[in-house]
Design brief:
The protein has 318 residues and is an alpha+beta fold. The chain contains 11 helices and 10 strands.
């Protein structure tokens, strides 16, 4: 039985039945609950949802982007990954350098006005091409500030030094697997103003027992329909990668969410997904020749046996 989909759908059902209507930063509106935990046994398969198609290659390239310590969307665009485009685009259209059509509140307007959406898509394409082709533009408007990659790989301490939290985790798991300090933190209070989007998955911790590596990740805010399936698969993949380098098996993935919500314009999509029967989970294959997780490319990570239901589209709230 596929417990991953069922566990996720139980959360969706719980929110719809027990959640409270709540306003939010984007102006979209949500149904929200505060505090929820889920557990996934990684020995039973890779927890990529089957009740809708989730684009695995986007998850891979985003995670590798984090692990490279990169904060510029150029790498993502080079890998045909557009999940961070809107935040870089927002940085550009709100600057004095932007002279195109008014893009105020483009996230909501593009959903409600077909004519505006056509203009928005044109401007977004211009932004993407400029990031890919213009080094100066990419440096200024492709960079999202001190987001995940910066915090994971170059955390700035109070002593003025920078710390590679991912390398620390790997080294510590190898030399002291019973440590209770196998933790990475992406939430830096002093740098929130320098981040285009403050971290949603703000911390994670590893745990080693019986030769298996488990991971618990914490989220302050979570878009259940669009974001959470990515988050689950991304941290599952991170656990697999670090387990391979540390010569361990994978154990459990544990999710702990604070403000866990379904956007008001995702409710019908969620209901459609809840009507679908889960299928068998896939597995993943990692390139065994890669000794370090920092050496992995997208082609080194393969998904095997993924047979999901079709995709379900929904707008992203920016």
């Amino acid at each position: 039985m596929n417990h991953a989909d069922q566990t996720y759908l139980d959360l969706c059902r719980y929110i719809l039945e027990n959640g409270t209507k709540k306003e939010d930063r984007t102006g979209t509106g949500t149904i929200s609950v505060f505090g929820y935990q889920m557990r996934f046994n990684l020995q039973e398969g890779f927890p990529l949802l089957t009740t809708k198609r989730v684009p695995f290659k986007l998850i891979v390239s985003e995670l590798l982007w984090f692990l490279k310590g990169d904060t510029n969307v150029r790498y993502l665009l080079e890998n045909n990954n557009h999940i961070w485009d809107e935040w870089g685009f927002q940085k550009w259209v709100e600057s004095s350098d932007y002279t195109g059509p008014d893009m105020t509140n483009f996230g909501l307007r593009s959903q409600q006005d077909e004519a505006f959406n056509a203009v928005y898509q044109e401007q977004l394409h211009i932004y993407q091409e400029n990031v890919l082709q213009d080094d100066e533009f990419a440096a200024k408007y492709g960079d999202l500030g001190n987001v995940y990659g910066k915090q994971w790989r170059s955390w700035e301490g109070a002593d003025g030094e920078t710390y590679d939290q991912i390398q620390y985790l790997i080294d510590e798991i190898k030399r002291n697997p019973d440590s209770r300090r196998l933790l990475c933190n992406a939430w830096s209070a002093s740098e929130l103003e320098n981040q285009q989007l403050p971290p949603c998955h703000y911390a994670f911790q590893f745990y080693v027992i019986d030769g298996k590596l488990s991971c618990m990740f914490n989220m302050r805010s979570n878009d259940v329909f669009l974001g959470l399936p990515f988050n689950i698969a991304s941290y599952a993949l991170l656990t697999h990668l670090i387990a391979q380098e540390c010569n361990l098996e994978v154990g459990e993935l544990i999710y702990s969410g604070a403000d866990v919500h379904i956007y008001s314009n995702h409710i019908e999509q969620i209901k459609t997904q809840m009507e679908r029967e889960p299928r068998d989970l896939p597995t993943i294959q990692l390139n065994k020749e890669k000794e370090s997780i920092f050496d992995f490319d997208v082609a080194d990570i393969q998904l095997v046996g993924y047979d999901p239901h079709g995709p379900i589209k929904a707008p992203v709230a920016v």
